[in-house]
């Protein structure tokens, strides 16, 4: 809310008289001063409630925008900081209520998963590391062909163009590389 924007906003509203323009200018200046003095503390407050910096910043920004829009209805401008704090708390609560509704709705729509062992993530990570180690052990050309084939999902023709080799060479490297991976991984405890 810079003064330049405020002035251009005021001059763009020809129906206002001098009193309305003065009140609007007062609102701009007052909210700017409150913003400078309280923004950081209000964001910290909201972060404690919503546990997300980006969401907290949005909550606080919305509170300042609402205050600016309702400045003329504020009974005691000296209590504006308290009004902002309460608005931030209320809007943070609204965010949390909305999250709860979204999570409950998503849980209802989520299909039930079969019992997954508690260490499934660790096992998957170990499996992934073993596959990557086996892939690193392959000769360079086989590794490149398998990566292009299974990671980028390229066709044999695209792989041949990318590596500058024939389609027959792509088939040969893919076949040998896959066989070497299977042999290496069959010996591993997956």
What does this protein look like?
Pfam families: Sigma70_r2, Sigma70_r4_2. Belongs to the sigma-70 factor family. ECF subfamily. This is SigE family RNA polymerase sigma factor. The structure is a single chain. By secondary structure, the chain is an all-alpha fold. It folds into two domains: 107 residues, no CATH class; 68 residues, Arc Repressor Mutant, subunit A (Orthogonal Bundle), CATH 1.10.10. The protein is built from eight helices and no strands. The radius of gyration is 31 Å and the shape is elongated. The N terminus is likely disordered.
Helix content: over 70%
- Structural class label: mainly alpha
**Strand-residue proportion:** under 5%
| H and E string | HHHHHHHH
Uncertain ranges: 1-15
User: What is the rounded Rg?
Assistant: 31 Å
> Mean pLDDT, as a whole number?
82
- The number of E-state strands comes to 0
What does the main sheet amount to? none
Global geometry? elongated
- SS field, number of helical segments: 8
Number of domains: 2
| N- and C-termini, Cα separation | 59 Å
């Amino acid at each position: 809310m810079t003064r330049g924007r405020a002035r251009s906003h005021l001059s763009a509203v020809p129906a206002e008289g001098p009193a309305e323009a003065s009140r609007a200018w007062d609102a701009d200046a007052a909210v700017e001063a409150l913003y400078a003095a309280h923004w950081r503390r209000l964001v910290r407050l909201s972060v404690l409630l919503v546990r997300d910096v980006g969401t907290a910043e949005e909550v606080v920004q919305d509170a300042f925008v609402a205050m600016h829009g309702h400045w003329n209805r504020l009974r005691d401008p000296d209590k504006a900081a308290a009004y902002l704090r309460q608005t931030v708390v209320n809007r943070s609560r609204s965010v949390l209520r909305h999250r709860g509704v979204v999570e409950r709705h998503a849980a209802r729509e989520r299909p039930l998963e079969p019992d997954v062992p508690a260490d499934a993530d660790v096992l998957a990570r170990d499996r992934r590391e073993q596959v990557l180690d086996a892939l690193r052990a392959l000769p360079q050309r086989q590794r490149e062909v398998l990566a292009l084939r299974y990671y980028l999902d390229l066709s044999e023709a695209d792989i041949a163009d990318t590596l500058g080799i024939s389609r027959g060479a792509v088939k040969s490297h893919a076949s040998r590389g896959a066989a070497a991976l299977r042999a290496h991984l069959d010996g591993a405890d997956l």
